[in-house]
Amino acid sequence: MKHLSVRFVNTCLLIGTLLLPCAALAISLEAYTKQCEKELDIPENSITKFDCLDGEILPTSQFGENCDSQAFLGDVLCVDNSRLGMMSFSTNPDVKGVWICRKYATFKDDPNDKFYHDIAMIIHNRKNGKTCFFQNDLNPTSDSNMVPEPGGESSPTPPWRTPPDTAAAHCTSCHKNDPFIISPHVAQAFNLFNLTRFNPKGLYSVVGSENGGDFTSFTANIAPASKEDARGLFAKSSGGCAGICHFDPANVGGMVDKAIQKHWMPLGNPMAPQWITPKTSETPGHTDPPGFSPYNFNPSVGQFYSLRSNGQIWGFNGSGGGGCFGTFCPHWTLLDSNPNTAEIAASGTKLYQRHTTGLIWEFTGVQCLDVGSCPGWRMLDNNSSSAQIVSGGGHLYQLRQDHSIWRWTGARCSGNSCPGWQMVDKNSTVDIVASGNSLYQRRGDGSTWIYTGTACSGNSCPGWQKIGNDPKTTDLVDGSTAVYRLNQSGEVWKYTGTPCNSSGCPGWQLLLSANTNVKQIAAGSTSLYRLDTNGTVWRYQGPGQNWVQLDSFARNVEISASFSGLLLRHSAGDVWRFKGPVCSNGGCPGWMQIQSFTDTISILGARQ
Hints:
Blueprint: H1 29-39, E1 50-51, E2 56-57, E3 83-87, E4 95-102, E5 115-116, E6 118-125, E7 130-135, E8 143-144, E9 146-147, H2 163-167, H3 184-192, E10 205-206, H4 216-221, H5 257-261, E11 276-277, E12 286-287, E13 304-308, E14 312-316, E15 332-337, E16 341-347, E17 350-355, E18 360-363, E19 377-381, E20 386-392, E21 395-400, E22 404-408, E23 421-426, E24 429-435, E25 438-443, E26 447-451, E27 464-469, E28 473-478, E29 483-487, E30 492-495, E31 508-512, E32 518-523, E33 528-532, E34 536-540, E35 547-552, E36 556-562, E37 565-570, E38 575-578, E39 591-595, E40 600-605
Parallel strand pairs: 7-10
Antiparallel strand pairs: 1-9, 2-3, 3-4, 4-6, 5-8, 6-7, 11-12, 13-14, 13-40, 14-15, 16-17, 17-18, 18-19, 20-21, 21-22, 22-23, 24-25, 25-26, 26-27, 28-29, 29-30, 30-31, 32-33, 33-34, 34-35, 36-37, 37-38, 38-39
């Protein structure tokens, strides 16, 4: 069944563009699809069909006004039930395809049926930047929700345009800085698919734009974001924004005023409205600078963070990839810039920081708008004696200078009153670690204890059980499912779950005999790593005391692990991620640089 309509406009996907007449000729759709698969580094015939009904419904109203977040495309206007979806097409984590099935008000689409006037798809490889654009034929009829693969034979009348006709839509007149544009209309869906930071400010080129190909015209439109300015931010490049906001076409005739006012505009655009975030009982109100929009950074389990000597906190947004291009390392988002920051802690999707003044803060999800404007934090405590914070299982704990341990109950500060803390111990504690839902402490005599869940009553704190009694213990390290200890002789032990009894503390398994070269141990969800003083890095392989070498570099100074893998920091400040393989034949090729700051002082992998 087809719906008849009069169609007079060409579109480009995701947000769209103003229209130009079509041109045609050249490579076939089937040949172009195969070329895309080859250059995107995915298997042949992997670009498959999809069902529009599998996508997320895109909202048209979110800010209190009708149509205040509609599609920013002239003839779409305000019609509900357009959908956006994502496909991977292969096991390659660096390749994602985003498709949209759009309904048009001007063509009197029925928002409740299964037919769509405008179907389009972008597939992007963030590692090499290669990108492919596909657009349906936009004929006078609407297409059903079942969309065949481009260039395939699953439909007798394929809905896809030829490559020359798709090129004539000039998609990159809007998709300038990033293949995936994010506006309020699509932001919710992009967030659900974890694509909001898939490859901001990374490589970007269009397949078929070389050597006079059909998409040659696209090249002139692409304006990649420039490198960092002196403040550490990405400056606006000519012709568009830095991949974190939407390009604002000059001609917005026919758009609804409210949609324009609510739209995300390029960084620094003087025509952009100021976003005003109202004050709440928990957070102060703030007004964003003109041309900037509140943009959420959404931490995931295993999230990586780094802390610089100037107090800046950065979140890694290159999950599954994220390499540098020379010294250009784009896959990090600035989350705070406060010179008082002394320590960060994270677990699950939670991120916290402690200041040198003792103040403790929780990240709310809003990234920095500028180096001096980082509104995404709310205060949890203002006790100047706070000495350490740790997090596990989404819970937050602090150790104070008087050796007392406190657990955050969830109540946030109101003014200078911060009632959300409950004391769970007051002893000779020198260190605390959290692993999953478990809390451990190391006392001054080297003994190790696990929290059983009973808080203090006055000065009585019975909620602890002894699990270790080695006076030579120097460090406790938390994994997601286990805790490990390191002692002065370099021995590494894993706690197996049996607490101490009258006969001793039998609940420990030896993973490494005495080795005075051990400098640090770090644990991920199931893996244990160690860094030796000579710069070698090792992963526990088991059984017994079997370890496999991952690196050998004298300037290695810190390791950190999480569910997402292993990070390594050099003395020069640069950060590397282990991708494999392990060392062999005198070489250790398994590392990829992901950050090039020269003043990184700490790296952190979020606990589970």
